[in-house]
Specification:
The protein is mostly helical. The chain has a two-stranded antiparallel ribbon with strand order 1-2. β1 and β2 form a beta hairpin. α6 crosses α13. The protein is globular.
């Protein structure tokens, strides 16, 4: 059903005589079962960030670390809930089966208060291009991470003195095939294997942590005020994976299971929060102030089992790139597919996917210190997309609806507090990224 256009920034919604259930009208080819959705969501948030949690607890202390990590998990879960529920309500209001991230923003702003309607197109473009920038440029960082890890392990054990660029090229070869997978369902084995490798790394790390009795003597319980930014910055960027949420939910065979209690969201966030707390707490308890930025660096490098954690993490990242590639390619393809004849869509997809990988590989080869710049872009976009945007969309959606903010407008107050927290994380991440850039190039 079409919307009536009344002016440049106004539209009239279709009559809502009968309730519209978007789930019943979805027509998804090869829908994803709930268990597969959980695997993808885990891979979206569960990554090598878990290995940085002991470092976060070093800054936050044992007691505050547990409380702070749990708080961040709850806030992130709430932001995901707001995003998905707003998307589903917008779908019902406009009578369309499903909406992506940017489409949700466009719909919310277009049908929100009069002052927001002129920004509908800009909000859609901002989210699309932010996701494209973060996702594609992250490939460069992951290439550098894998190449550096392989160089360190192989170089130390086999005495092979290859340049990092050779390892980048070697890593790019399997990515040619991984990044050509287009169906979310076919990415399940890659996500499952990546999850298994990360959990294997986690298990080996815990073995070394608990191999000897853990002594809590002289371990900090609470943080110094100046260490709070580092703590929250590490935890938020380790947990956040907002880009995969709506693409995964839109492909579900039973989308009503996503926000159910217990459902996909609750299961995934609870699992991740427990893992992150266990790793952070006991990792810091074991190594204290000597805790490295990645806890695997604290493990005895002379033992192959300990050294294997770095290899497992690198291979896990390799298989993760399939799901990271899915989101930006879905956005990009929708924008450019009209430029190609339908019978050439397959060839065009292959060429575009390969061309982007080639470009990102060339960038990693040419600028080996690219990571701090990507960190800056990631800090800005991740905090904005993962924390601030879902809250803003919920607020704009509710604004024209009488009584939607609840008793004494408590939802509006809650959203204002969460946006303040998001701005704090945004400022912190930007500051430390710029600081790293100045340290390298200053």
């Amino acid at each position: 059903m079409e919307l009536k256009q009344t002016s440049a920034h106004e539209c009239v919604l279709p009559a809502q005589d009968d309730p519209y259930d978007p789930f019943r009208h979805r027509r998804v080819k090869k829908p994803t079962p709930t268990c597969y959705t959980i695997i993808h969501m885990l891979k979206g948030s569960l990554g090598t960030g878990i290995l940085a949690m002991p470092s976060a607890f070093r800054n936050g202390g044992l007691v505050f670390g547990l409380l702070g990590t749990t708080l961040v998990g709850i806030i992130y879960a709430h932001c995901v809930y707001l995003l998905v529920s707003t998307s589903q309500k917008s779908s019902a209001r406009t009578r369309v089966p499903q909406l992506g991230f940017s489409e949700t923003a466009h719909s919310v702003f277009r049908h929100g208060p009069h002052v927001t309607r002129r920004f509908a197109g800009a909000s859609k473009a901002f989210i699309d291009y932010s996701l494209l920038i973060v996702s594609f440029f992250s490939v460069c960082v992951y290439l550098l991470f894998i190449a550096t890890t392989l160089k360190g392990v192989i170089g130390s054990k086999l005495a092979i003195e290859w340049d990092t660029r050779i390892y980048i090229l070697l890593t790019a070869v399997p990515l040619i095939f991984v990044t050509q997978v287009r169906d979310l369902r076919y990415l399940v084995p890659f996500s499952a294997l990546a999850n298994a490798l990360i959990l294997g790394t986690f298990g080996i790390t815990l073995y070394y942590i608990f191999r000897d009795p853990v002594d809590l003597t002289d371990r900090r319980l609470l943080p110094e005020l100046t260490a709070l930014p580092s703590f929250f910055g590490t935890v938020v960027y380790a947990v956040e994976g907002i880009g995969v949420v709506l693409p995964v939910e839109n492909k579900m065979q039973h989308p009503e299971h996503f926000l159910a209690c217990p459902g996909v969201l609750g299961t995934v966030i609870a699992f991740i929060t427990v893992l992150y707390n266990v790793t952070g707490f006991f990792g810091y308890a074991r190594y204290g102030q000597k805790t490295e930025a990645t806890v695997t660096l604290n493990l005895p490098s002379e033992e192959w089992l300990a050294l294997s954690t770095q290899l497992l993490a690198a291979v896990a990242i390799l298989f993760t790139l399939g799901i990271y590639y899915y989101v930006p390619m879905d956005i990009l393809w929708r924008k450019v597919k009209h430029c190609f004849d339908p019978e050439r869509h397959n060839v065009a997809q292959i060429a575009i996917r390969f061309g982007i990988l080639l470009t990102m590989t060339a960038l990693a080869l040419g600028v080996p210190e690219l990571e701090p710049f990507i960190g800056l872009v990631g800090s800005i976009c991740s905090a904005t997309l993962g924390l601030i945007t879902p809250i803003v969309l919920d607020t704009v959606y509710r604004w024209p609806i009488d009584g939607s903010f609840g008793w004494y407008r408590w939802r509006l107050i809650k959203n204002a507090i969460l946006v303040t927290f998001g701005l704090f994380i945004l400022t912190v991440g930007t500051y430390f990224s710029i600081k790293d850039i100045v340290a390298i190039y200053g």
